[in-house]
Specification:
heterodimer; A: 142 residues; alpha+beta; three-stranded antiparallel beta sheet; two-stranded antiparallel ribbon; globular; disordered N terminus; B: 263 residues; eight-stranded antiparallel beta sheet; 32% helix
Chain lengths: 142, 263
């Protein structure tokens, strides 16, 4: 279905299903205006990446591994010589034009959460995509 | 004092990630995790329709009967029937081909069994991401763990993968978020009320609830119901949902907007 997924294409104009309240919240939350694209693009911070400068601890991000529908990217954290965390990198939007009101809402809420989030929910992903991305990240540790 | 743990288990064709802080020793914690993970694999061995020799596969080929299967098959069958009633037929374990396929329930049902192992052992400060369905333990205190991303309705492996939005469950009774959609596995959800119709005019439904299985089942039911799913879920107490329509527009239940993460 991905090729027919209209979500990835521009959706400007037309009727929107959001109630006025949603628009109000979005407008309030955006606050300082539209210069927030840059906020959407840096890698999202994760809650468990340490920053110890003296040890050999390190965090590396794997290549974007091609897969059935595109690419997947993981990050591996090494602490004390052991892999201590594997994080799924949530790539940012590629600047596509989203539906006007939802996009404001979405951007506002992404801006609002600032320091990130603990977990992410989505349709059940496959092991294969996960494994490939993990291998890619681990290979960069050596 | 508390031991941090993180474990990713590949099972049922997806990944289950347990992470949190345990009051037990590292050794004890690993033993508890092993027991929890065994619940997942036990369920997979019995219910997988990808394993030709599983009791469920044999059942689908009419080579055995429910009575001859392990007792949990009957238990899950009963649960599925209950949910079919509760969802007014929008969740059904019976495929258009009239075989029994409880896959829509088994992942989170097994995840709940593994959660119960941790809780029973006194580990309450943890989260579980069951292949995209998230549970937040009762003693989670870290504010960031109550913030949950909802993925865009594309595969996590897609070029434009990323976060659609972020919600914050702090200060609510909600502890689970489940998402159903066609982004990862294509059109695998059928319309039980009208099998000849297109399965859905939605791309994705995300449901927050106070129970992981409840969130998962209603997400699947609403996805099958398509646009009617918005009204369907608005009538369910203690539950909120965000819909991504086939047009790319969003819709939500009345109270969902209060869950968006605030600055």
């Amino acid at each position: 279905m991905p090729s027919s997924n209209p979500y990835t294409t521009a959706k400007i104009g037309g009727k929107r299903r959001w109630v006025a309240g949603a628009l109000g919240l979005a407008t309030l939350s955006i606050g300082s205006g539209f210069g927030i694209n840059s906020l959407l693009n840096p890698a999202l911070e994760t809650s468990n990446v340490g920053g110890d400068p003296v040890s050999t601890d390190m965090t590396v991000r794997g290549d974007a591994v091609p897969y059935q529908y595109g690419v997947i990217e993981l990050e591996v954290v090494r602490t004390g010589g052991k892999i201590s965390a594997v994080n799924l990198i949530q790539a940012s939007t590629s600047g596509s034009d989203w539906a006007v009101v939802p996009s404001m809402l979405v951007k506002a809420t992404i801006q609002a959460q600032g320091s990130g989030f603990g977990n992410i929910s989505g349709a059940t992903f496959t092991t294969e995509a996960y494994k490939q991305a993990l291998n890619s990240a681990i290979s960069k540790l050596t | 004092m508390a031991n941090h743990f993180e474990h990713v288990e590949l099972c049922m064709g997806t990944a289950f990630r347990f992470a949190g802080n345990s009051p037990l020793t590292e050794f004890e914690t690993q033993a508890v995790l092993a027991e929890a993970i065994a619940k997942l694999h036990d369920a997979d061995q019995i219910f997988s329709l990808y394993k030709p020799e599983s009791p469920l596969s044999q059942l689908a080929r009419c080579e055995t009967s429910v009575a001859k299967c392990p007792p949990v098959v009957d238990e899950v069958w009963g649960l599925c029937e209950q949910w079919e009633k509760t969802t007014d037929g929008w969740f059904s374990p019976f495929t258009p081909e009239h075989t029994f396929d409880p896959s829509g329930l088994v992942k989170t049902w097994a995840a709940q069994a593994s959660i119960d192992v941790l809780l029973g052992a006194g580990i309450t400060d943890f989260t579980l991401n069951a292949g995209g369905d998230v549970f937040i333990g009762p003693a989670v205190t870290d504010a960031i763990e109550k913030k949950l991303g909802i993925h865009k309705p594309v595969s996590i492996a897609a070029e434009d993968a990323g976060v659609l939005t972020v919600i914050d469950l702090a200060g609510t009774d909600f502890n689970a978020l489940a998402t159903s959609g066609s982004a990862e596995r294509g059109a695998h959800i059928w319309n039980p009320r009208n099998p000849d119709r297109e399965p859905s005019d939605l791309l994705q439904v995300s449901v927050v609830a106070n129970d992981l299985v409840k969130a998962d089942v209603w997400a699947t039911a609403a996805f099958a119901a398509g646009m009617q799913g918005v009204a369907l879920l608005n009538a369910v107490p203690n539950l909120e949902a965000l819909f991504v329509l086939a047009s790319g527009d969003l819709a939500a239940t009345d109270g969902f907007i209060q869950l968006f993460a605030k600055a």
